[in-house]
Amino acid sequence: MRDLARDDLVPTLLAWAYTAACALPLAEALPASLAWTRRCWDAGDDHLPLSLVHDLGHLLVLGRDFRFASARDLARWPEPERAARLAWEDRVLGRWSLDPTLLDAHVLVAGLDPAARDLAVAHAVRLALARALDGHTACVRANPAHLRALAPAALNALPARFEDWPAIPDDEHRAWALAQREQLRASLPTDRLFAPEDLWELAHLKDLPSESARLALRDVLGLAARVGPVAPAVAASLRQRVREVPVEAEEAAEYPAGGFDEVSTRGSFENLVRSEMVYVGEGTDGAFDLFDVRFAESELLFYTRDESPLLDARRELTVVFDRPASLRVKHRGAPAQSLVMASALALALQADLVRVCGPTGARVQLVWRCDHPDDRAAADEERALLALPLAAEVAHQRVSLRVVDGVVEGARGARVICASQPAPADLRDAVWVHCAGEAWEALGERWPMGDGPSGLRALADAILQVTAQRATVRR
Fold first, then answer.
1. Which H or E run contains 45?
2. Considering only CA atoms, which of 228, 225, 230, 256 is closest in space to residue 243?
3. What is the average per-residue pLDDT within 282-291?
4. What is the pTM of this model?
5. C-beta atoms surrounding 460 within 10 Å
């Protein structure tokens, strides 16, 4: 990788623009591409070539309306270049255009105002390409100050020089730009361009207070996404436990304990409404009676059972981050700080409860317990971070976020305590998670955290099974 000299900047920009695979006229498309490139370079990704920023950026803005340059300029391309240009459109841009995550990103950025859209497109290009191409020998490092120093008149003049292309730019720079793109092609992503946390960032880019906050929240959301949903077997077990919970006699009227609930046109024959038998033998004029006709037309009535008395209850879970400043430690063998992993565990537990109990049947409290001013500073920062992805849950009162000093009061349902120290001897009615080292201790076992997501997933499943009954409270 070499540095791009100042005097070579304009010829290189021309050469990159020459390879553009978007059918938009350069006079219309290039100013936006230059603005995106400048944002990428200013953010530290000065190895990204204008050619890639141009193509991916306009693909993000246009979505399904993106048109390939070959549809307009194929006949004007020199014969030696056609195969490489068509291969680029087919094997790179064609695959990207079919990527569902790119279409999701297009929906997020296309409706923004121009300033916000430029910021979002540049950020999306960085997320998709910067890491994949960092350190590639075919890339050149550019000085963003040189691009900022170009007079607007010089930038506006760039598209005008293409009225007589392909003679402009010169043969040497044109051949270099095409060869660079071919060398970079093998390193470009070919599957999904954007992860779930990338799409979340694009949707909330304006709300993130700083770059450090973005990176911190990205770590938490990325780890929580990789933890994945509760295992189907565990979810089925939790639902089965719900059905088997007994109900006190005085609550039977309010919480039906397995009785009949209503009638439906679907069900098993043992639950058939007895009055339906009057149609047997009626209206016969051959082999069929009214009962047979009603059965064939799905008009028979069946009683339906109330599957669970606890469907009218709510699962409440309190996750306590004990002394959060002490959890801001990266242990050897762990993929992230203990507080980041504990936050990801809490987000996974909240999502699992919603999956099992439904959006109206689960409530989670996240509490940061402080003993020291450092804890308060860390807790305020973490609360502000998690309030962003949980904004909708908080608004619907499915999640609450609190910072407390001393004893945690008002916790209902089950409690999970994430702490940097081992569990106290007098611990009762709570799951204590000792978040330290390569393996965390909880529920009398050690849970390896070297792989992060798999260890957190196994721990979350165990916590859900143990706290299933404690978490149930009446509305």
1. none
2. 256
3. 74
4. 0.70
5. 26
